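Cross-posting from the chemistry board since nobody answered there.

I work mostly on the small-molecule side, so proteins are not my area. We synthesized zinc ion and want a rough idea of how it might sit in this target. Sequence and SMILES are below. Is it possible to get a predicted 3D structure of the two together?
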Amino acid sequence: MNEIAALLKTFADTHGMSGYEDEVAALLLREMEPLVDEVRLDTMGNAIGIRNGDGPTVMVAAHMDEIGAMVSHIDDDGFLKIVPVGGWTDQTILGQRVVIHGKDGITLAGVIGSRPPHLMDADERKKMIKIKDMFVDCGATSAANAAELGVEIGSLITADRELRPMANGFVTGKALDNRAGVVMMIWALRLLKGKKVRATVQAVGTVQEEVGLKGARTSAYGLTPDVAIATDVTIPGDNPGASKSESAVAAGKGPSITIIDAAGRGVIAPRSVIRWLRETADSASIPYQLQVGNGGNTDATVISITKSGIPCTVIAVPARYIHSPVEVLSLRDLEQGARLIAASIESAHKYFEPR
Ligand SMILES: [Zn+2]
């Protein structure tokens, strides 16, 4: 594994459900420390690194949280009922291995189970099993035993998957949404190390994106940058079941620049921002794809409407099977995305004035 893949593995294998991003934040602050002038953690838990310059302020936001679940009930036999936190879907989580984060940092292995198919009648077998009918089995034999093992109401559940390389520079793992963005942000700072850069960089690992874009909202308000780039993953249309007419973006063909998210209900990138990023990519010979999103939102949505408005868009890595424990992306896209962010920070002063 090369260096950027190893960094992605470190971040993707770390657990940090929405609202509980502390381990990821600590890792990020450690990585950023030698690359910036100042690091801090804010009240919400956003991890902030500032690199000072005398030009415009450029915020780079990367959400640190991953989707997961929380224990809401422990039955008499020691099985755990869960409430999903973020976008876990019924068909992706059944049969998965999970980590249960119990009291005092205790972790236990578990699996997500359901009624055995062998006991189902023909009609029942045709139906999709819902999360509410699933449970987590951690080997506990009773509610009291689960408590002894450190499991309680409110214990966190995250996917148990380690990043693995695949053919042709692809990798698969959990939480590539959005540790890919976190790694792009760090890698961009590394590329800028020792270079004279006019812009002030505000690199922010944001919290609670998957449950309402919350950390981006508060950190953008506090930092009030002149311009911002959110880094995330995006949905390609290149695999069976998706079509190129639904998303023109393909994994392995370069990072994407978002023109609009969620059919315009999300961010609508100002023309000035698109021009900045496209001209920068062209002059640095970085391949890119344009994304017209019809689905979800990103941190850019809330950053763009912070205070009196912040010009903003998204640079994303196309990732297949987003919100499953087997997300897939191309390391080349990740590296090119980081190069595009770094080059854009270097050119920002030509396009934007300090406020
Ligand atoms: Zn995301």
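Reply from a structural biologist on the board:
Welcome over. Reading the output above for you: The chain has two domains: 3-66+174-350, 68-159. Residues 176-192 form the longest helix (17 residues). Happy to explain the token format if needed.
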